[in-house]
Amino acid sequence: METGDLHQIELLPCGTTGKTQGIRGDLFFFPVAALQDQFSKMNWMFFEIKGNKVPFRISKFEDSEPPVVHLEGVDTPETAKALSNRQVWVDVYHLPEKALGMMKKTNELSELQNFVIFSEDHQSIAKIIRTLEYPSQLMAEVERDGVVFLIPLHEDFIQDINISQKTIVMNLPFGLIPAGNAISAEESE
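The chain above was modelled as a monomer; its predicted structure follows.
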């Protein structure tokens, strides 16, 4: 192997496994939205085992709904069960640039619980309860005046994110926010 072939491994969460499938040790796989169309081209996935990320070669990928993966060395349902319902990582070196950008943004945006969304004119809109990943869009489940609703966390709407103050400034289309009073600054803390 030439020195040019070496690269620093940087892992990003790429989805989760589900239950085992069949008698060969296959696993259902639920990739993040950014990788929906890319994962069939991947060769490796990483699992955390005893505190270390361990690589498994993907020997077969079925592009079904949900996708099914078969990993080298995982040949029985019993072996696969140890890897079921687990977080999976992928080496960013093997990701197309567009998918990598989407994944990094998704990972950043998924950490927004308890952030407060403000309009561009500094009006408090809602507080984020949690983020939800839909097939084509990351959504914020938010609460305002006891009403829970969803706001798309789309890059076109996000104007600014302040991590230290836990605030997001958004320019949201008319009609996306239910009518009612804005939450006060005291409620947002």
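Residues 97-109 form the longest helix (13 residues).
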